[in-house]
Specification:
The protein has three helices and 13 strands, in the order ββββββββββββαβαα. By secondary structure, the chain is an alpha+beta fold. The longest helix is centred in the C-terminal third of the chain and has 12 residues. A four-stranded antiparallel beta sheet has the order 2-3-4-5, with no helix packed on it. A three-stranded antiparallel beta sheet has the order 7-6-10, with no helix packed on it. About 3% of the residues have low confidence. It is elongated. Helix 1 runs antiparallel to helix 3.
Length: 202
């Protein structure tokens, strides 16, 4: 009997390297974590590299959102504002008071977000460069995908198992296994998914 025990891994556990399709030569490439981390130890830089055509993307695609909470200089009412994603980081931002429509230029706070390219092609994409993930396939109208070999092997162990054990979570079900869609958990899809995983490993 095949047995699988959930190791409490979350999806982020498999994201140190994400295999993607190169936008230049369409070969298998990677978005991977650089060794250097920031002082907090949680943030890290993800770089894109294709070993087939040596194409490189220097940095993830960022946009900037200006926001703040101020008192209007005309009617003195308090209001909040937030811009649409902007291509460049603004030093000043023009906004209108929602109460009296008075327009003024403010020094905003800035938050950095990854650019949403609005590509609705049904493909799973990495969150840094918005490139299609290499391992993905439609299974009866459901998208089955994996980041890399480690992710594939973990999924394979889970799908192959006759007995799937999960530790007590006190209602906190955020592990990767807990969040798998039903078609991955269903016994009727087991052989089909295992064949896909085997092919990906080859």
């Amino acid at each position: 009997m095949e047995r699988f025990q959930d190791e409490n891994k979350i999806l982020w556990s498999f994201s140190n390297e994400i295999l993607v399709k190169c936008p230049k030569c369409e070969s298998k490439a990677s978005v991977k974590q650089e060794l250097e981390k920031c002082e907090c130890g949680r943030c890290h830089n993800m770089v894109f590299e294709c070993k087939n055509c040596f194409y490189k993307l220097e940095e993830p695609i960022y946009q900037y959102i200006a926001y703040g909470k101020v008192y209007c200089n005309n009617c003195f009412e308090k209001f909040e504002y937030e811009s649409q994603p902007l291509k460049q980081e603004p030093e000043k931002y023009k906004t209108k008071c929602p109460h009296c429509k008075f327009q003024e230029e403010l020094e905003p706070k800035i938050k950095v977000v990854f650019r949403n390219l609005q590509i609705f092609d049904g493909l799973r994409r990495d969150q840094w460069y918005n490139l299609p993930i290499w391992f993905q396939k439609d299974v009866n109208g459901n998208l089955f995908w994996a980041y890399n070999l480690e992710h594939i092997e973990y999924l394979e162990r889970y799908i192959k198992a006759d007995l799937r054990e999960r530790p007590f979570t006190n209602g906190f079900n955020m592990t990767m296994v807990a969040r798998l869609p039903q078609f991955v958990k269903a016994a009727k899809n087991r052989e089909k998914l295992l064949k896909i995983l085997k092919k990906w490993k080859e």
